[in-house]
Design goal:
Shape: globular
Largest sheet: none
Helix content: 40-55%
Low-confidence stretches: none
Distance between the termini: 60 Å
Radius of gyration: 16 Å
Number of helices: 4
Order of helices and strands: HHHH
Structural class: mainly alpha
């Protein structure tokens, strides 16, 4: 018999926050709105891939959170510095961790080497609640 601990609701919420963070704070700097919309349709960074399921265990939640945080850090570094060779292995390692849990992230580190300074996207959160 093996005892499994379920992920807490805070961990689940944080996973969803990080997945959403990619769409609102990472992708708009590298892809246009049409491409991002396609990513949503394809189920990129979705927990419901269908092939391999995320079972909701605490261990899986920690692995997913760590992988997402690592990818965000690597992408932000690559976007600022433009060099990706030394972190390619870390990028791929975390990509594989996500794939084991059914989360698709089909990108290469080189795709994040050229960051836009000011993205104009519907995916970027509004700076305030007021709309003009």
């Amino acid at each position: 018999m093996k005892i499994m601990y379920a992920a807490t609701s805070e961990q689940e919420n944080y996973i969803h926050y990080l997945l959403n963070y990619f769409y609102t704070d990472v992708f708009p700097y590298y892809f246009d709105d049409e491409q991002i919309r396609q990513f949503e349709e394809w189920g990129i960074l979705s927990l419901n891939d269908g092939h391999v399921a995320y079972n909701g265990t605490m261990k899986e939640a920690f692995q997913i959170i760590s992988a997402l945080q690592s990818l965000i850090t690597v992408i932000e570094y690559i976007g600022e510095h433009g060099e990706c060779d030394q972190y390619e292995w870390l990028f791929v390692r975390n990509q594989n961790i996500l794939a084991r849990h059914g989360i698709t992230f089909p990108f290469r580190a080189k795709q994040f080497a050229h960051k836009r300074a000011m993205p104009c996207s519907v995916y970027v959160p509004a700076a305030s609640q007021w709309v003009m």
